[in-house]
Structures are given as C-alpha cells and as structure tokens.
Design a protein that fits this description.
This protein is mostly beta strands. The chain has one helix spanning 22-31; strands at 3-6, 9-12, 34-41, 46-50, 56-69, 74-79, 83-86, 92-108. The chain has a single domain, classed as Jelly Rolls, CATH 2.60.120.10. The protein is built from one helix and eight strands. Strands 1, 2, 3, 4, 5, 6, 7 and 8 form an eight-stranded antiparallel sheet that branches. A hairpin with a 4-residue loop joins strand 5 and strand 6 (74-79). The protein starts with a strand and ends with a strand. The mean pLDDT is 92.
C-alpha cells in the first residue's frame, strides 16, 4: 500500500488484484465509522477552491480527479480506488478527469 503524506493530507494508492467497487469501498468506510456519500460528475468539471470545517475522506471509485492545494502548490491525481484524507480547514480544488468520475466521500459519525 503506497501512502503519500504532505501538510497533514494523506493519499493512499489502490493496490491489489481486484478492481475497487462502490460496495467494497462504502463497506470499508462504514467499518471506519465514516458516513459515505456518493457523487459523480462529468468530464473536466471544475470545483473551485474550498475547505471544510470537518475532516473528510474521499475515494475515487471510477475515473480520475486532479486535486490541487493552492497554499503548497501541490497537485495529486486520484484514480480508481485511491483515497484522500483531508483534515479540516485544508484548502483545495478539483478538476474531474477526461472520462468523468464517480466518488464516495465521508466524514466521521
């Protein structure tokens, strides 16, 4: 399992022989006491810079996302099965990849 950490942000890369499924990912999130919420968007959709008042976990289920952190000028691309853990207050923006994306995110109960 490859984990990349910077400025309290953690990215866990998917590994394993099985393709990640929405059911498997949401089940894992519930085991971790996260409330999963599924969303999807079309290719190249842009989410402006934002932050949240809570810790957030996001999985890319299908497609890809480019996540940019303006304060540090870091950028990470999430692909199917990759996980992003964002602490509260971290500013970021997202560009959905060229094939669109389905994601599931959650916060702690």
């Amino acid at each position: 399992m490859a984990v990349v950490t910077f400025n309290q942000v953690s990215v866990t890369r998917w590994h394993g022989g099985q393709h990640p499924t929405l059911d498997n990912i949401t089940r894992q999130m519930r085991v971790e006491s996260l409330r999963p919420y599924v969303w999807s968007n079309t290719a190249n959709y842009r989410y402006p810079v934002r932050s949240h008042g809570y810790d957030k976990t996001l999985y890319c289920v299908q497609g890809s996302l480019e996540v940019t952190f303006p304060k540090t000028k870091k950028r990470v691309v999430l692909r199917s099965g990759d996980r992003l853990d964002l602490p509260r207050g971290i500013r970021y923006s997202i560009i959905v990849g060229s094939t669109g994306a389905q994601c599931v995110e959650g916060s702690y109960l």
